[in-house]
Amino acid sequence: MRVKEHPILSSLDRIPVVEIIVDGIAVPAREGESIAAALMALGRLKLRHTHKTSSPRGVFCGIGRCTDCVMTVDGQTNVRTCVTPVRAGMIVETQNKPDKGE
Amino acid sequence: MRQADIIIVGAGPAGLSAAVEAGRLGAQVVVVDENAKPGGQLFKQIHKFFGSREHLAGIRGFDIGQELLAQAQPCAQIKLNSTVYAIYPDKQVALIADGVHQETIRAKKVILAAGASENVLAFPGSTLPGVMSAGAVQTMMNVYQVLPAEEILMIGSGNVGLIVSYQIVQAGGKVNALLEAAPRIGGYGVHAAKISRAGIPILTRHTVQKVLGEEHVEGAIVVQLDDNVQPVPGSERMIACGAIAIAVGLTPLTELAHLAGCQLTFISRLGGMLPVHDDNMETTVPGIYAAGDLTGVEEASSAMEEGRLAGIAAAEALGYIDAGAAAKRKAQVWERLHMLRSGDFGSYRRQMKEEVIEKGRIFHAI
């Protein structure tokens, strides 16, 4: 959910929008923001599933330490989306989807 | 192997302040930070700082960050996206980037200013997407202008919990309640009053019993606590929310200090384990200094002062300033630090810090 109005911060409207591909779907992101922020702006909190029990996980620490927000980015697994900025055309995929192999 | 007078680990308020002092005195300084941007957590702090004019009171955190960065840039090489993964004997600092070894720099002095990380609180459902540290919520809304949900439940009434709650309202979100397990509000009364005026209910003696939701947070069952911090039967109630922010303190990031062989001590009220240091912020390993939240969780203002101390002391040890002039500068910094560590909230921090420093003095005397 994007912040619509803010009493202190200036609007992000001037920041260019780039497109990233998330699980096969093209979605907008603001240049320079983290992958996790771009997904949160779209209302997506669940970023991955755990390997063993497929439990959902999202951002916890936001500073790259807890690694709960990892996703596969451009084929590289376990990328910390809270500290990795978006780049136009970036391919982002959910790890350990429960429906994998179906 | 590349050489440097001083390597500073961490480009937050402490590290950048150290770089400014040491660099201005003529030392050749390299600041290393694992993040893509410098400034540590200053750029998500949109509130005006507290204290006196010397402490930049009334200026917003991100403006302080810009100013500090502008001062530091001509004083040091700031190397971003680089993580220190080892500190070998003889102060050889090894850096890694994108999983690949970058270089090892041999430094004459090292200043550790790695900061702190937020504490976790475990309860049924605490791993569900939407349960986040308050700092993560703050980064999302103040740096990227994104809210995790329209309605948020805050846990913890220290200054972080209070300030972030207010900032959620500023960003257009709603804080449905702020829970505090203790009988009293932890942070400054002025912040608590501000969020009460904003209509946020502060529930002391309350905690989360469990989170509702399968794929992400949809609400929480909260419960009242008795004098023994046990749930009061029948006091459970549901609070709707799409996210839960946790503000229950921070822990110093002591890994590198530990790795470098610095003696650590445990001071609960400063966040737990932290490196022993003396008046110069020098740890028990000669030539390795520490500053900021790593040496005890306080505020950005005190982190900046500690950074200045470490920067002056390291430059002095390298001969860039004579002892008399250095003593004068350090005395000025100490005066400001004492001011920051005074009053109802600050005096215990001064007392705890003096305990740490006493240990450091004894160590260096032996």
UniProtKB/TrEMBL annotation, chain A:
Q: Which UniProt keywords apply?
A: Oxidoreductase
Question: GO MF annotations for this entry?
Answer: iron-sulfur cluster binding; oxidoreductase activity
State the source organism's domain of life.
Bacteria
> What name has this protein been given in UniProt?
Dehydrogenase
Q: What is the lineage of its organism?
A: Bacteria, Bacillati, Bacillota, Negativicutes, Acetonemataceae
Automatic annotation (TrEMBL), chain B:
Pfam families, per database record: Pyr_redox_2 (PF07992)
FAD/NAD(P)-binding domain mapped to chain residues = 5-307
Q: Which residues form a coiled coil?
A: none
Q: Which GO terms describe its molecular function?
A: oxidoreductase activity
Q: Which keywords appear in this protein's UniProt record, sorted alphabetically?
A: Oxidoreductase
- Signal peptide span: none
Gene3D superfamilies per the record?
A: FAD/NAD(P)-binding domain
Which InterPro entries would you find in this protein's record?
Ala_DH/PNT_CS2, FAD/NAD-bd_sf, FAD/NAD-binding_dom, Metab_Enz_Cyan_OpOx_G3PDH
Q: Which PANTHER family match?
A: ANAEROBIC GLYCEROL-3-PHOSPHATE DEHYDROGENASE SUBUNIT B
Name of the protein described by the UniProt record: Pyridine nucleotide-disulfide oxidoreductase
Q: Which organism is it from?
A: Anaerosporomusa subterranea
